[in-house]
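Quick question, first post here. What does this chain look like in 3D?
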Amino acid sequence: MTTTLAIGGYSDTDFAALTSEFDPVFLGGPDELAGLEAEARSAITAVAYKGHAPFGGDQMDMLPNLGIIANYGVGYDAIDTTAASARGIKVTNTPNVLNDDVADLAVGMMLCQGREMMQASAWARSGDWAKNGEYRLNRKVSGSTVGILGLGRIGREIADRLAAFKMDIHYYARSEKDTPGWTYHGDPVSLAQAVDFLVVALVGGADTEKFVSKEVIAAMGPNGVLINISRGTTVDEAALLDALESGRIAGAGLDVFLNEPNIDPRFYALDTVVIQPHQGSGTVQTRAAMGQLQRDNIAAFHAGADLLTPVN
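> Answer (accepted):
Ran it through. Tokens below.
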């Protein structure tokens, strides 16, 4: 009987690799745990987890011999790590391997929003360029002031890229970091007031819920643009929509939303918003590396070796 359970929508490649290495039971989501026989659940010692559905103490208690939950992704806010620690269950994630792709997308959304690239493409494709002439002038991005809200691994990669765009870098973090002269703010409102673009690179979870509050959004002002590649929960989405619709901020580039993929339809009516389908890590190369790191953590656990990327 297998000791590994794989939960989530895995690609054909990851499905094949998991099958080859662990011959797991596959479930679509944690809500399907109750459908397993008690004997099968008792045999499970490792879970490969992919998805955003909550995995909490109730689910863990259905797997009485569980020792590890290996998350596919750097964000593990769906997993109750406090409940896991209380039960002696280790949680791992897949950091670093996706930093470049997420940072690239953040910069891409910034350029796309400022230079109106989607609208300009539609202008050319529709025949308006030939019929009506040049597309309207838009916004210069290079040389702007940018704020990074959360200067962790991904935030640092974003800042490094934007420095090459001759941007004045400001940032918020729990404490001041060693930087090449970037400006530190100990308060997110102060950061928002000081910058043209505000990039959200926070971790998800209860501690950062609505961290980009109504007050932070208001502080951005009518020329401010919000870029979010973290989690939809980190932003007060209702306040953001109100500010966008009223023109109290200039626009946004968003890869994450509340209730995704069923996002608030108000976003679709706003041509000042660049919308992406939570695809920050969505390249063939990075997803392969994420899957490999997830499997390597499970293999280390089964072998009794040190875990590669524990989070608790």
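DSSP finds twelve helices and twelve strands in the chain.
The domain at 4-97+284-303 is CATH 3.40.50.720 (Rossmann fold).
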